[in-house]
From TrEMBL:
Cited InterPro entries: NB-ARC (IPR002182), P-loop_NTPase (IPR027417), Plant_NBS-LRR (IPR050905)
Protein name listed in UniProt: NB-ARC domain-containing protein
Domain of life, source organism: Eukaryota
MF terms in GO: ADP binding
Biased composition (Polar residues): 32-43
Lineage of origin: Eukaryota, Viridiplantae, Streptophyta, Embryophyta, Tracheophyta
Residue span(s) of domain NB-ARC: 108-248
SUPFAM superfamilies from the UniProt entry: P-loop containing nucleoside triphosphate hydrolases
Disordered: annotated segments: 32-54
Key words, A-Z: Plant defense
Record Pfam families: NB-ARC
Length: 251
């Protein structure tokens, strides 16, 4: 899809920009030397002849702007990533994810990792939040379709994680009302409720730094083999070094 879109994008950029540049430059340069309206008959010398200099200044600036646009177009064409962005313009996040051939196997790889009994902590990283969100949505639809988990819980982790809010978010989706006020005791309540789920997927997005899942109240691995955790971040280091993910996938 992208392979066919890029040549179109290139042709559009080169053709339209070049034509519009020549036409507009011609119009502006022509108008610069056209005979202007007679000077005002107003006796005030400050008003007389003011139209012509303003028009010439406007035209001169317009030519400069077009020259800058042309130079920018050349620079854009020298950067392949810019062509990708142009080709993706107007696409939905989901279509943008599918547009790059190398991304297509990632969905299958993530789903395969989720089905691996020996893998409990999986990471997805990349700089484009929209692409990561599109992948998560596809993963969600796939696991729902294939009935891989009895329940899927999703929560966003901000730059400065508020553990209490994260606990409340997860508890709400689990239908749990906390009886305790302290974070540690709430974590125990969450652990107990999650362990009652034979199979559950917990998706935590937008990690900026590491934290202990047990302090939130998420059991996994030896504590609960039926619980899988899928994490997303812009940094692979956050996932592998601080969260100790077993498998990571770049998007």
């Amino acid at each position: 899809m992208l392979r066919s879109a890029v040549p179109v994008a290139i042709a559009g950029i080169i053709g339209l920009a070049a034509i519009s540049h020549r036409l507009l430059r011609h119009c502006l340069t022509s108008s610069k030397y056209q005979t202007h309206k007679p000077q005002s008959q107003d006796k005030n010398p400050n008003k007389a002849g003011c139209t012509e200099p303003e028009a010439m200044m406007s035209n001169s600036n317009g030519i400069d702007v077009l020259d800058n646009l042309l130079n920018t177009r050349i620079k854009l064409l020298q950067d392949p990533q810019c062509l990708v962005k142009v080709a993706q313009a107007g696409m939905s996040n989901s279509n943008a994810f599918d547009a790059l051939e190398w991304r297509k196997p990632i969905l299958g790889n993530v789903v395969e990792a989720l089905g691996d009994h020996n893998t409990h902590l999986i990471g997805v990283y990349g700089s484009d939040d929209a692409i990561k969100d599109a992948l998560l949505e596809k993963v969600y639809r796939r696991v729902q379709r294939d009935k891989m988990f009895g329940m899927v819980v999703r929560a966003s982790i901000t730059k400065y994680p508020d553990m209490r809010k994260i606990q409340e978010n997860i508890a709400t989706q689990l239908g749990l009302t906390f009886n305790q006020k302290s974070k540690d005791k709430r974590a125990l309540e969450l652990i107990h409720r999650i362990k009652n789920k034979q199979s559950i997927l917990i998706v935590l997005g937008d990690l900026c730094k590491g934290f202990e899942l047990s302090k939130v109240g998420i059991p996994y691995g030896a504590d609960h083999t039926g619980c899988k955790v899928l994490l997303t971040s812009t940094s692979e280091d956050v996932l592998s070094t601080h969260m100790h993910t077993q498998k990571n996938f770049m998007v």
